[in-house]
């Protein structure tokens, strides 16, 4: 494999919780790979066991129910921020894409409010699942940020606290036909 092909490889990094303990050799190896991937490609794929197959399946089932709702219900997901509310792409009367977003999805109440917006009686299983999913992914993001701060020799506790205070999480759910 030549160096050009090596640069095109998709970085896949193991973020398994039981293996990823700060200060261990695995942590340091993954931390250095995160930094290299971000500097060279701007992204990577995380193997992550923080989202169980049950959560993933429940989320996909709930999203199917959500996308089966009438258009008039889905457009209630309004948000003045671009790409945060309901969006759709229709070409020649064929819906190609739909998406809805839960702003502040790591806050349990935001997920409950979203489910009440779409289902007037609420949908507790859906709000629980979206909250669990968003929280797990946010924890992964925080771990990545900690690694980046550490790899640059920055005070990760100080910067991570500042980053966390200024971060809000949008859970954007997409459907392609």
UniProtKB/TrEMBL annotation:
InterPro entries the record matches: DIOX_N, IPNS-like_sf, Iron_ascorbate_oxido_reductase
SUPFAM superfamilies the UniProt entry points to: Clavaminate synthase-like (SSF51197)
Keywords: Dioxygenase, Iron, Metal-binding, Oxidoreductase
Keyword set includes Iron: yes
Chloroplast listed as a keyword: no
Gene3D superfamilies found in the cross-reference section: B-lactam Antibiotic, Isopenicillin N Synthase, Chain
GO terms assigned for molecular function: dioxygenase activity
Residues annotated as domain Non-haem dioxygenase N-terminal: 10-94
The protein's name: Probable 2-oxoglutarate-dependent dioxygenase AOP1
Primary gene name: LOC104705102
């Amino acid at each position: 494999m030549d160096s050009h092909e090596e640069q095109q490889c998709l970085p896949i990094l193991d973020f398994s919780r039981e293996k990823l303990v700060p200060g261990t050799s695995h942590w340091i190896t993954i931390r250095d790979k995160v930094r290299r991937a971000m500097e060279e490609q701007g992204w990577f794929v995380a193997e992550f066991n923080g989202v169980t197959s049950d959560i993933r399946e429940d989320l996909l089932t709930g999203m199917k129910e959500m996308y089966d709702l009438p258009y008039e219900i889905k457009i209630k997901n309004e948000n003045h921020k671009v790409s945060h509310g309901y969006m759709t792409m229709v070409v020649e009367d064929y819906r190609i894409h739909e998406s809805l977003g839960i702003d502040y999805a790591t806050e349990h109440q935001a997920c409950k409010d979203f489910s009440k917006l779409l289902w007037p009686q609420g949908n507790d299983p859906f709000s629980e699942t979206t909250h669990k999913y968003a929280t797990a992914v946010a924890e992964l993001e925080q771990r990545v940020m900690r690694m980046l701060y550490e790899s640059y020799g920055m005070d990760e506790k100080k910067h991570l606290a500042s980053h966390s205070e200024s971060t809000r999480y949008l859970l954007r759910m997409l459907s392609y036909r």
